[in-house]
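Customer escalation, tier 2.

The customer says the design service returned an amino acid string that "doesn't look like it belongs to this structure." They asked us to rerun it and document both sides in this ticket. The original structure tokens are below, unchanged.
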């Protein structure tokens, strides 16, 4: 059994839905995770924002626009009159339900309920189309098995128990469909997985069921060895270790969220990144295999802020770093890179929502210098310290690029450079030329 996840662009139109249905019906017994149609979640966020601000008229205008969009899809997607009518009735009930939030107190639970409707709509639409085509498909409501524990993390034992029971009670279906992203929290209220969204759903399902493979279908041919928007001639990476994939995802490869593959990694279930627009392409396989002596890819993370704290009191002063890190921890701000010297520490962050307050507190530790509009460029592959030459080859490629910080040794798979955002293009192109020369 495989778990197949399709994102919003993959089901972004009736024609795309039909193409996805051709793909998922080629094998029997798989579980398919669907996102909302592209653009829908953004509209639902806008609707929720209007409700939150006490403007139901604004919300209702967007709801009606969304209703008209989906109503137009019915004729394009379904051939049968009865099926068209059934789906028209379903959509009418969905958008009527959204209108009812005009008359309730709009809290966090209401907002998450509104946001959940995109996945509910897309999965019902695809299920109806498959049944019209004669496919025996079971739509499993994610809210029946995807639960978060008290700490907000997925309750994997519960997910496993519920899913296994549902599948045991409903054997011999051609296909099983469910929603990505949405869940219930420990109190039973509608919630969501946030990080990684539907990718996280697929990873959790594949992990608890020990699937043969988890397939993440997007609109590009897997994870590339550099950013194709900046560098010409990039190529898909055919295989990545889970740790390599996590590093690339964290440092800028947008195709995958860094945390969403953790359940698959811990359970040894391979993840394959595939392209719905080019299904024949092999994509990228992510597993626990490690290829020694290879540099795999380059990624970049924008909108980084670097902070340097300099203090002569740091010399041999125990507790200095703890004080610095505690300040960031108190504001819930994660740190990307860290370098230290005898009298100072430099670090980088991507969340500047509490920057002013953090800087004020850091001034009690020493002199604070802030550089904004920075970029982290990372090179991922076999970068174990015993290898000779890789780090010098990488740094030599950046001989014309001013480097603010270098982080090496914290991982066996990554060396990172902090540079100005304005130098990103030059850095990525120089690294590609040095590490992936044209054959």
């Amino acid at each position: 059994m495989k778990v197949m996840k399709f994102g919003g662009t993959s089901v972004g139109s009736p024609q795309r839905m039909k193409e996805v249905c051709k793909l998922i019906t080629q094998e029997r017994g798989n579980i398919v995770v669907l996102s909302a149609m592209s653009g829908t979640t953004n509209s639902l966020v806008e609707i929720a924002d209007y409700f939150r601000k006490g403007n139901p008229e604004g919300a209702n205008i967007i709801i009606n626009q969304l209703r008209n969009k989906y109503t137009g899809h019915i004729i394009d997607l379904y051939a049968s009159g009865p099926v068209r009518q059934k789906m028209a009735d379903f959509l009418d009930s969905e958008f009527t339900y959204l209108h009812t939030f005009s008359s309730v107190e709009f809290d966090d639970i209401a907002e998450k309920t509104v946001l959940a409707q995109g996945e509910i709509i897309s999965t019902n639409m695809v299920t109806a189309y498959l049944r019209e085509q004669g496919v025996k498909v079971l739509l499993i409501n994610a809210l029946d098995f995807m639960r978060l524990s008290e700490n907000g993390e997925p309750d994997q034992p519960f997910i496993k128990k519920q899913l296994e029971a549902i599948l045991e009670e409903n054997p011999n279906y051609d296909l099983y469909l469910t929603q990505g992203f949405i869940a219930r929290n420990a109190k039973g209220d509608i919630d969501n997985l946030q990080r990684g969204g539907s990718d996280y759903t697929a990873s959790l399902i594949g992990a608890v069921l020990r699937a043969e493979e988890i397939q993440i279908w997007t609109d590009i041919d897997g994870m590339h060895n550099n950013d194709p928007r900046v560098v010409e001639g990039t190529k898909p990476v055919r295989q990545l270790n889970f740790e390599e994939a996590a590093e690339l995802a964290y440092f800028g490869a947008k195709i995958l969220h860094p945390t969403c593959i953790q359940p698959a990694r811990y359970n040894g279930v391979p993840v394959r990144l595939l392209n719905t627009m080019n299904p024949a392409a092999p994509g990228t396989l992510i597993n626990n295999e490690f290829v020694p002596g290879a540099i795999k890819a380059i990624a970049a993370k924008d909108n980084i802020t670097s902070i340097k704290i300099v203090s002569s009191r740091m010399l041999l002063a125990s507790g200095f770093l703890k004080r610095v890190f505690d300040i960031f921890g108190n504001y819930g701000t994660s740190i990307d890179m860290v370098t230290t010297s005898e009298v100072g520490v430099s670090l980088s962050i991507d969340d500047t929502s509490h920057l002013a307050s953090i800087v004020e507190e850091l001034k009690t530790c020493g002199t604070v210098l802030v550089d904004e509009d920075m970029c982290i460029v990372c090179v991922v592959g076999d970068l174990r310290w015993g290898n000779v030459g890789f780090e010098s080859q990488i740094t030599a490629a950046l001989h014309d690029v001013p480097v603010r910080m270098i982080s090496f040794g914290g991982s066996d798979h990554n060396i990172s450079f902090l540079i100005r955002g304005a130098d990103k293009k030059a850095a990525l192109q120089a690294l590609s030329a040095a590490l992936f020369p044209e054959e």
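Tier 2 assessment: The sequence is consistent with the input. The first helix runs from residue 14 to 24. The CA atoms of residues 35 and 200 lie 11 Å apart. Sent an explanation to the customer and offered a walkthrough call.
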